[in-house]
Design brief:
Elements lengths: L1 H31 L4 H26 L2 H5 L6 H33 L8 H29 L1 H16 L1 H5 L2 H10 L4 H29 L3
Helix pairs in contact: 1-2, 1-4, 2-4, 2-5, 4-5, 4-9, 5-6, 5-9
Pfam families: ABC2_membrane_5
Organism: Tetragenococcus koreensis
Keywords: Membrane, Transmembrane, Transmembrane helix
């Protein structure tokens, strides 16, 4: 298990610097434009998803790492568990790196941005929740169909985003917003995180069933 995590870390290592540079590049104009810290965490999550996680999965598939690992005395459960664990660790690392970058900006640009404990907590929940929710859909498709299907899955949120303005202006969304505001911020954060983790667990089971039945 540890060796598999090290393998994933090596695969994504070359993308770490690119992610950090892109996060700095995105964060500075966001701060100057008055974007809240939570929004910057969302942007960094999108960056780490495309630069680090997708890059790792594509490299894995191109090098046929999964096929090779299955020739070794490694169970398929361990193989899938290591991928889900490494992806979760990437989400935590993304939060830590983004927090450090924001702390540096608060030192050099104190009038533009401030960080509180709630901002950090919200950033942690957004980072973990958004990434593992997306990965919950992506990883089973990756194990079942490979890179081609994975590319189509990536397009889905982009297509949905084009219709987001209509959804946000709908009566359904306005009613949903009224109901949501009845809960406290901490309650919403907890619910979002717990639901995301549960979905991630279900996704792991689905991926495990897929890879057990698949003949590589």
């Amino acid at each position: 298990m540890i060796q598999l995590l090290k393998k994933d870390n090596i695969l994504i290592g070359k993308n770490h610097l690119l992610f950090i540079l892109c996060t700095i590049f995105i964060s500075l104009p966001c701060i100057l434009l008055g974007v809240e810290a939570a929004g910057i965490y969302v942007f960094s999550s999108i960056l780490v998803f495309f630069i680090v996680i997708i890059g790792s999965l594509l490299s894995d598939r191109e090098q046929e790492s999964t096929n090779f690992l299955l020739t070794l005395p490694i169970s398929r459960k361990t193989l899938v568990l290591s991928k889900y664990t490494s992806s979760f660790l990437v989400a935590l690392e993304n939060w830590a790196v983004t927090s450090i970058i924001l702390f540096l900006f608060t030192y050099f640009l104190p009038k533009q941005i401030t960080l509180s404990g709630f901002n950090l907590l919200l950033g942690l929940v957004w980072t973990i929740g958004l990434l593992i929710f997306t990965l919950s859909i992506l990883l089973p498709v990756y194990y079942a169909f490979g890179n081609k299907a994975m590319r189509w899955v990536i397009l889905v949120p982009l297509i949905l985003a084009s219709f987001s303005s209509q959804f946000f202006n709908s009566d359904f969304f306005q009613e949903l917003l009224i109901q949501v505001t009845k809960f406290s911020a901490y309650s919403l954060i907890t619910i979002f995180l717990v639901v995301s983790l549960l979905i991630y667990g279900v996704s792991f089971i689905v991926s495990l069933l897929v890879i057990k039945k698949k003949d590589f």
